């Protein structure tokens, strides 16, 4: 069966499926002992630039779980590193930028990305597509707001103070940062599509910090520019945390699938997005730390509510927590398949 016929791609396109497809954000990574083993002695950004490691780490969760898609192992800051921004991913912290971007002169450091800046991305994807066979590979990138937040703050941030100060106080500067980031993101995604990914996910993880009217003015046009440029080449997923009040607009950007965190039930999310959108989500990743019976009950409820959407891809409401027992994820992937097939036959 070619990747084109997969339940994951069919659900993204809102076509009928025999069971609900499932994958997990951050399905690779620190919850897996085999990940910790292969990463030993290799810095995160170095791993992201080493095709053999990318292939191995991407395959690890596919070997363990009956997931319906793999996600390319990388990080949202990889294209920024590739254009020469001095940054590192610090263990236990996340991306840290040596010299945050706060003025006009600094914006010129956001030069365009070319595919030649990220040869390891193309190489790894080409290898993965061969290894995965019928399982589709999801490519991804960070959206302009979330990337801008790391660049402007200099690292992870709770309140996004400097970011919002620029957005509200120096809108011309803000728009030039977001426009440069949109262009970098378009090239990063197109490079992945050209190398063979079957779908893409654009992460605007922290955009839930922005009020709906400000999202419309300061963020929406740049995200829409990215999805317009990608067009209909592959299904496009868009996700952010705490975006209950933005779900409609996230759909209007041109995404085919809107990712939902655990705060909004899927039937309510289905009412908030425009017609013609599939939904992805939305089990609270912390529920996996509870006994299996709780996971099962919550998952059954999500599958029921997901049936009110035009298409449903099961996922967590955000990434797998590092303390998650992989056995819970293995059971969860199987349960999503059997229970959704049972519900469909009811
Ligand atoms: O050494 C390590 O293992 C570092 C931990 C780690 C990992 C495993 C980081 C640092 N990034 C990643 C991989 C990664 N990053 C993946 C692939 C894994 C998979 O899904 O299988 C993906 C999709 C990302 C994307 C990413 N990076 C996002 C968007 C997704 C999300 O979780 O919201 C964000 C916001 C980042 C930034 C980042 N990179 C790393 C960390 C710890 C963070 C978050 C920092 C913060 O809290 O602001």
Automatic annotation (TrEMBL):
<feature type="binding site">
    <location>
        <position position="318"/>
    </location>
    <ligand>
        <name>substrate</name>
    </ligand>
</feature>
<dbReference type="InterPro" id="IPR038071">
    <property type="entry name" value="UROD/MetE-like_sf"/>
</dbReference>
<feature type="domain" description="Uroporphyrinogen decarboxylase (URO-D)">
    <location>
        <begin position="138"/>
        <end position="154"/>
    </location>
</feature>
<feature type="site" description="Transition state stabilizer">
    <location>
        <position position="75"/>
    </location>
</feature>
<dbReference type="InterPro" id="IPR006361">
    <property type="entry name" value="Uroporphyrinogen_deCO2ase_HemE"/>
</dbReference>
<comment type="pathway">
    <text>Porphyrin-containing compound metabolism; protoporphyrin-IX biosynthesis; coproporphyrinogen-III from 5-aminolevulinate: step 4/4.</text>
</comment>
<feature type="binding site">
    <location>
        <position position="205"/>
    </location>
    <ligand>
        <name>substrate</name>
    </ligand>
</feature>
<feature type="binding site">
    <location>
        <position position="150"/>
    </location>
    <ligand>
        <name>substrate</name>
    </ligand>
</feature>
<comment type="function">
    <text>Catalyzes the decarboxylation of four acetate groups of uroporphyrinogen-III to yield coproporphyrinogen-III.</text>
</comment>
<feature type="binding site">
    <location>
        <position position="75"/>
    </location>
    <ligand>
        <name>substrate</name>
    </ligand>
</feature>
<comment type="subunit">
    <text>Homodimer.</text>
</comment>
<keyword id="KW-0210">Decarboxylase</keyword>
<dbReference type="InterPro" id="IPR000257">
    <property type="entry name" value="Uroporphyrinogen_deCOase"/>
</dbReference>
<dbReference type="Pfam" id="PF01208">
    <property type="entry name" value="URO-D"/>
</dbReference>
<feature type="domain" description="Uroporphyrinogen decarboxylase (URO-D)">
    <location>
        <begin position="21"/>
        <end position="30"/>
    </location>
</feature>
<comment type="similarity">
    <text>Belongs to the uroporphyrinogen decarboxylase family.</text>
</comment>
<keyword id="KW-0456">Lyase</keyword>
<protein>
    <recommendedName>
        <fullName>Uroporphyrinogen decarboxylase</fullName>
        <ecNumber>4.1.1.37</ecNumber>
    </recommendedName>
</protein>
<keyword id="KW-0627">Porphyrin biosynthesis</keyword>
<keyword id="KW-0963">Cytoplasm</keyword>
<feature type="binding site">
    <location>
        <begin position="26"/>
        <end position="30"/>
    </location>
    <ligand>
        <name>substrate</name>
    </ligand>
</feature>
